[in-house]
Amino acid sequence: xxxxxxxxxxxxxx
Amino acid sequence: xxxxxxxxxxxxxxxxxxxxxxxxxxxxxxxxxxxxxxxxxxxxxxxxxxxxxxxxxxxxxxxxxxxxxxxxxxxxxxxxxxxxxxxxxxxxxxxxxxxxxxxxxxxxxxxxxxxxxxxxxxxxxxxxxxxxxxxxxxxxxxxxxxxxxxxxxxxxxxxxxxxxxxxxxxxxxxxxxxxxxxxxxxxxxxxxxxxxxxxxxxxxxxxxxxxxxxxxxxxxxxxxxxxxxxxxxxxxxxxxxxxxxxxxxxxxxxxxx
Lengths: 14, 257
Known about the structure:
The structure holds 2 protein chains of 2 kinds. Chain A is an all-beta fold. Helix content of chain A is 0%, strand content 36%. Chain A has no helices and 2 strands. Chain A is rod-shaped, with a radius of gyration of 9 Å. By secondary structure, chain B is mainly beta. Helices cover 14% and strands 47% of the residues of chain B.
């Protein structure tokens, strides 16, 4: 299955 | 006190048109060096980062760093009232809950001001470190827009693969499949017509075409677009704004789990 990643999977909030 | 005068007002109109469908509300961060914006779409799959440096303005005054929350749909409505040749000035006062857009015709015989209500926005700012990308493709922006539009009529996702052979855009859907390959081509009359592929390692990633097509609304801002990819990072689709800055779109890939 292919899933749509989110920005939060790659970058941290600050 | 904030006052920014942009002789080429159409630039600001184009910037708004390129991002307003992706992001509803955003904080504009003004400082003495220019203004920037970072915002994600509501599903947190895509992110837009805008930078317009103060050097690009005829007059730029920002006494202290300030952030203004604006509804981009409303801002777009107001900027659409500016003529394409108009000079646009953005004005704000400390503590005010409005921002003023002033439009001057090139011959100075028509001057309009539109005051827009600001809003409080809880924005989630992401730290995006500089990255080394496996592959960077620079190509004509109109060509990229054409490819995204064509592929979206066949499928929902695009696989972008960069090898030393070139860059391949592929999709599949109920009616069939499509593959478009662009080879590096630097023997063109105009540099902006070139396709330049810088590849350190081959890379192949899958993205939603709906977002890619939304990004191509920035095509009027630049003749070229740069697509930067690494396997474990969102793709960066960048439109440079001549002498002033950029609009960058980040898109999280679709991955197998």
